[in-house]
Amino acid sequence: MAIALNNTIQNIRFRFVNGPAGQFFQWWWEELRNALPARLRVRMQYAQRRVLVQMGAGEIALSIDNAAAIQSLDTLATDQDAQLQHQRIRELLQQHELTEVNRDLLLPEAVVLRTEVVMPLAAEANLRQALAYEMDRHTPYQAEDVFYNWRILSRDRESGQLHFELYVTPREPVEKHIELLKRLGLAPTGVDVAVRDQPLGINLLPEALRYRIVNQQARLNWIIGAASAFLMIFVMMQSLWLREHQVQVINEAIDAVRAEALTVQQIRKQIEDANQAAGFLQERKLENGYKVEVLAELTRVLPGGTYLDRLSMQAETTQMQGKSANAQSLIELINDSPYFENASFRGPTRLDNRSRKEIFDLSANNTQQDVR
After folding, report:
1. What is the CA 372 to chain-centroid distance, rounded?
2. What local confidence, expressed as pLDDT, does residue 46 receive?
3. Is 6 part of a structural domain of the chain?
4. Domain annotation covers residue 57
């Protein structure tokens, strides 16, 4: 029952991703990402970093893949005490803010079998299951003895054929590497292949064996974004409902008392009220536009290594709470902005033991209050 349900879900997901709707959303997201300011794109790229782990002869090499380049992090000997290594790795990940990023075990190309396979196009929706049945036809292995994944090369819809590259590696040595990495606190979220010193971009590890890492900051951002979108939609719908309701009342009044002059005056006033209701949404947009400018200014002013846990924008003041590597420098940076003045701490700063950053609570007066 569970397998059938999972296959149905995978089938629906595949049809959506490869259908017109999925292609539209992929194009839309790419255009939206390209339209973002360079600073925000860099921050998004920073948030998508991952740790690459390579197992060698008696050593473990750690590096950072930030999508633009691969930076070497450290090399550890495997013959040392596991607890000491675990502590060293944890401190290293905390130092570089890598505790909540994905970790991929990077296999050398020599231990991975690559072969081109052609199958019916209809098999793509359940390709993993189809490959499990036919693994011994395309490789020297049985499906239960290997980890495998694929990359689509082309879809020939006229002939109904699917062309893809199949990547296969023996299961036993990879499982030994994974067990060692788990003992060291580096349980991998995936297994990739190094091709010309670069990750190929696939994950040979089955879903059930992938270590799940929850990025609390990203989750919080998604929650805040969803709540903001919900509130915006709610305000828009409420404004539209108010406008429609007012217009309906006006029409009923016009039909009922068209001949009386006093009623005409009342109807005229109701029309003016309806126009004011229609302009409510525009005023809200202008006000929110100013807040967006303030938010953009804070993004520009605050240095790297500083992020906000709470931001409150009032008519006359803006209050910021968060963490920074150098909280004392924020006063001068905020005062230099044309949007703020008289910045000061509302209380003493203190050190956050987990992130090793200073926790601050800062308030500044707004210099631009007329949002219209």
Report:
1. 34
2. 47
3. no
4. yes
Answering whether pTM is above 0.85, one says: no
The candidate with the shortest Cα–Cα distance to 334, out of 369, 324, 289, 46, is 324
Domain total in the chain: 3
pLDDT tier at 229 (50, 70, 90 boundaries)? Answer: confident
CA distance 105 to 292: 41
Return the percent helix, strand and coil in the chain, to nearest 5.
Answer: 50, 25, 25
- Residue 58 one-letter amino acid: G
Cβ atoms 67, 48 nearer than 8 A: yes
Rounded to 10°, the helix 20-35/2-18 angle is 60
Output the domain CATH number for residue 327: 3.30.1360
- For the segment 64-107, what is each residue's pLDDT rounded down to a tens digit? 887 667 888 888 887 788 788 888 888 888 888 778 788 899 99
Rounded distance, CA 312 to CA 80, Å?
50
Domain of residue 114, CATH code: 3.30.420.380
> What does the block give as tokens for 207?
């879903």
Q: Any idea which residue has 């059938």 for tokens?
A: 4
Whole-number pLDDT of residue 139? 93
Domain assignment of residue 269, given as a range: 214-301
How far apart (Å, rounded) are the C-alpha atoms in residues 197 and 181?
A: 21
Burial grade of 146 (CB within 10 A; 0-12, 13-18, 19 or more) = buried
Same domain membership, residue 119 and residue 76: yes
Give the angle subtended at the CA of 31 by the CAs of 29 and 36, to the nearest 5°.
Answer: 95
The answer to whether 371 and 286 have CB atoms below 8 angstroms apart is yes
Range of weakest confidence among 24-38, 176-190, 330-344? 24-38
| Percent of the chain at pLDDT exceeding 70 | 77
Domain check: are 331 and 264 in the same one? no
Contacts of residue 21, Cβ cutoff 8 Å, sequence gap at least 6: none
Nearest to 92 by CA among 70, 63, 58: 63
CA pair distance 202, 106, nearest whole angstrom: 10
